[in-house]
Amino acid sequence: MTLRTKLAVAFALFAAVPLAAALVPVSRALARALASEHAARLDGAAAALQGELDRLGDDAAAAVRDLARAPELEAFARERDAGLLPPAEAAGRAGEWMTSRGLDVLALVDADGRVVSSGHLPGRAGDVDPELGGLLATAPAGRAVPRLVSRAGPEGVAPVLAVVAWTPAPAAPALRVVGGLALGAERAERLAALTGGEVAIRGADGAVLAEAGAPGAEGSRLWRRLARVFGGLGAARRTFPVGPPEAPIARVDVSVASEGLVRAGATVVLAFLAALGLGTAAAAAVGTLLAARVTRPLEALRAGAARVAGGDLGAHVEVRAAGEVGELVRAFNAMTQDLVAGRAKLAQAERIAAWREVARRLAHEIKNPLTPIAMSVETLRDAHAKGRADFPEIFDEGTQAIGEEVRRLKRIVDEFSRFARLPAPEKEPVAAEDLVAAVLALFPAPPPGVEVRREIAPGLPAVLADRDQVLQVLLNLVRNALDAMPAGGTLRLAARRAGDAVAFEVADSGAGVPAEDLDRVFEPYFTTKEGGTGLGLAIARRIAEEHGGALEVASREGEGATFTLTLPVAAGAGVAAKA
């Protein structure tokens, strides 16, 4: 372990130990606070449940009283007493009233407990209902009480917990109106929403009558573990008996999850840990600074060697040192410079090989559109064989589309093939002035609104280049510049001395190249022009590099772009330039 590391560790421990010791009491106090909040939430859920049961009871009693005084019930009793109401029609009348008043349980019962009409259990009409009979005998009129009631449903008759009330009909003293609201699946969902947890309605035997709440309300495995950390927090459960305290007929189980509380506690603890981490890091930084002056030269050499091992062959150690360590630093920097030069040559060779492979692959891939062309030909043959009357129109449209597609594919394939099989340049001395003049000769009359400026520095030496390939590069740059100025502007073609090379500049006053695209303009297949292949500038840079030169771009949006082609000067000042 190095001295710098030892000091950093010592300072980090000095800061971390007190903070870590404070973590235990802080977490315990937080756990107690969260447990208290959890209990409060469970009490709130109990109050919400009781309030909902009371509300259902009031609604059921009000609906029963309203029906008992309704004119339709008076008419029903009058028709039944007069013998004008068939038994089958009388048996189904309660179902209509139950639906219209939003009740889940409704029956008309005579004085001896026999069902006259039932909406929740139509088959019970004409029989004595022991469930309703017991209600009439024990519960006061007009007061809603919980009862287990059998109710017909899609899956047959099943018991359901309901809040039921009864009242005599003023216009028909012989009839009793019994109605209520059931705690089925829908109201269990409402109870779950009110309590914020899971609700299960069970009978006296423990059988589930209805349940609701998001499955897995206790949270994920991670949060359950965190709940145990914070004092055993979990999905607490409380049971509420329904009915007489001495003999409940059912019970409601309410579970309130604590995931939100656990998240809050975890957030506080994580913030505490973050402070612990920041304090430790700050202490370690102070220790590192104290040892920096002693270990800096050797650490810099170690870091430089690691960068070289990681692939950064151009790593350069910027540190002052004397004696043997200084000699070692200078030798290291000289070694990395040699590595960079060798890597540049290797990278250029690899890039050229990669471009060729990509071009071959893409040339192979674009053969795929030939399939729909073949299908079009088959369509024409089929139409001709069947002698269709509209064959001339089909033939004209099909052949035009095929011809256009074939020409487009041929142009793309030719350009990609030229990119893949670009011949090695045949270099010879070429006058820089002649190259500029040859390019401008191809544009004797510039497009409307475009001003062409020719700026040639005097006494330029000849460049060593393949004349045709360099003209191809300059011509491509000039065309791109003109495309960038559809509404007109200034095109500048210049040549100047740049050390042991000649720099050719093609500048336009167009919209410029977006900053995010500057690093990609020379990538194969990258283009912003509709219908472009994205190989023009890639081929141009490859030609420049194979000449031992470079092609670069500088641009600001709204101020145009400048492409600079740099070519090496031909050896020997007296070599004649070839036009």
From TrEMBL:
<dbReference type="InterPro" id="IPR036097">
    <property type="entry name" value="HisK_dim/P_sf"/>
</dbReference>
<dbReference type="Pfam" id="PF02518">
    <property type="entry name" value="HATPase_c"/>
</dbReference>
<dbReference type="InterPro" id="IPR050980">
    <property type="entry name" value="2C_sensor_his_kinase"/>
</dbReference>
<keyword id="KW-0597">Phosphoprotein</keyword>
<dbReference type="InterPro" id="IPR003661">
    <property type="entry name" value="HisK_dim/P_dom"/>
</dbReference>
<dbReference type="InterPro" id="IPR004358">
    <property type="entry name" value="Sig_transdc_His_kin-like_C"/>
</dbReference>
<keyword id="KW-0472">Membrane</keyword>
<feature type="domain" description="Histidine kinase">
    <location>
        <begin position="361"/>
        <end position="571"/>
    </location>
</feature>
<dbReference type="InterPro" id="IPR005467">
    <property type="entry name" value="His_kinase_dom"/>
</dbReference>
<keyword id="KW-0418">Kinase</keyword>
<feature type="signal peptide">
    <location>
        <begin position="1"/>
        <end position="21"/>
    </location>
</feature>
<dbReference type="Pfam" id="PF00512">
    <property type="entry name" value="HisKA"/>
</dbReference>
<keyword id="KW-0732">Signal</keyword>
<keyword id="KW-0547">Nucleotide-binding</keyword>
<dbReference type="InterPro" id="IPR003594">
    <property type="entry name" value="HATPase_dom"/>
</dbReference>
<feature type="domain" description="HAMP">
    <location>
        <begin position="292"/>
        <end position="344"/>
    </location>
</feature>
<keyword id="KW-1003">Cell membrane</keyword>
<keyword id="KW-0067">ATP-binding</keyword>
<dbReference type="InterPro" id="IPR003660">
    <property type="entry name" value="HAMP_dom"/>
</dbReference>
<keyword id="KW-0808">Transferase</keyword>
<dbReference type="Pfam" id="PF00672">
    <property type="entry name" value="HAMP"/>
</dbReference>
<dbReference type="InterPro" id="IPR036890">
    <property type="entry name" value="HATPase_C_sf"/>
</dbReference>
<protein>
    <recommendedName>
        <fullName>histidine kinase</fullName>
        <ecNumber>2.7.13.3</ecNumber>
    </recommendedName>
</protein>
